[in-house]
Amino acid sequence: MESCKKLSFCPYCPYATAHKGHMQRHKRIHTNERPFVCVVCHKRFNRKDHVLSHMKSHSKELPYPCQVCSHRFYTKNDMLRHFAEHFADNTSSDA
Predict the structure, then answer these.
(1) Top-confidence residue, 93 or 35
(2) Where is the C2H2-type domain (predicted)?
(3) How far apart are CA 32 and CA 26, in angstroms?
């Protein structure tokens, strides 16, 4: 049996997907709809995962330490971005 999903096309740009939820999420980029609200500071977001990540910033918990300088971060992505900065200046060649 072959499964065939119907593609949905964004009315604003060339984006297409077979997942209805992905299209709903994508269209918010164009419409600036921000239905997800931080319960602490009331900042609005267009994606649920973004508001959940943001809410960690209101916590005192910083579970992700940098292995180089031990500075701590509330998200793994923030720590990895910081970690890469330790090595960014060492990539240029002296040749």
Answers:
(1) 35
(2) 8-35, 36-63, 64-91
(3) 10
Q: Both tokens of residue 13?
A: 């740009």
Report, as an integer, the average pLDDT of 23-52: 96
d(CA 3, CA 20) in angstroms, rounded, equals 16
Q: What is the pTM of this model?
A: 0.66
- The C-alpha atoms of residue 95 and residue 81 are separated, in whole angstroms, by 28
Q: How many CB atoms lie within 10 A of CB 64?
A: 17
Residues 6+ apart with CB under 8 A from 62: 72, 73, 74
More confident residue, 94 or 90: 90
Distances (CA, A) of 27 to 4, 10, 34, 38, 58: 23, 7, 11, 21, 28
Closest CA to 59 of 39, 84, 33, 31: 39
| Lookup result for tokens 């077979």 | 18
Residue in the block written with tokens 């267009």 = 46
> Do the beta carbons of residue 34 and residue 46 sit within 8 Å?
yes
